[in-house]
Design brief:
Number of helices: 3
CATH class: Few Secondary Structures
Helix content: 25-40%
Order of helices and strands: HEEHEH
Distance between the termini: 20 Å
Shape: elongated
Structural class: alpha+beta
Oligomer: single chain
Radius of gyration: 15 Å
CATH architecture: Irregular
Largest sheet: 3 strands, antiparallel
Strand content: 15-25%
């Protein structure tokens, strides 16, 4: 059977943890960040866990677990 192709767009945006959860970057980091409050800026630095409903669809695009 041939190898399955990984969707590279999905692979670049998420990382899989040891417990098979998906981590993603916070959105809204492109530009116009100077106007944000300090609390917002600090929260954008950290990664967040993808919701379970979305994770199931993303994992379909990552056949080998990234």
């Amino acid at each position: 059977m041939p190898k399955l192709k990984t969707r590279k767009a999905a692979a670049k945006r998420v990382k899989i943890t040891a417990k098979k959860k998906l981590m993603r970057r916070e959105t809204g980091q492109g530009h116009f960040n100077a106007r944000d409050a300090g609390k917002t800026t600090r929260s954008k630095r950290s990664d967040s866990v993808v919701f379970k409903t979305d994770a199931a669809n993303i994992k379909l695009n990552l056949p080998y677990g990234n």
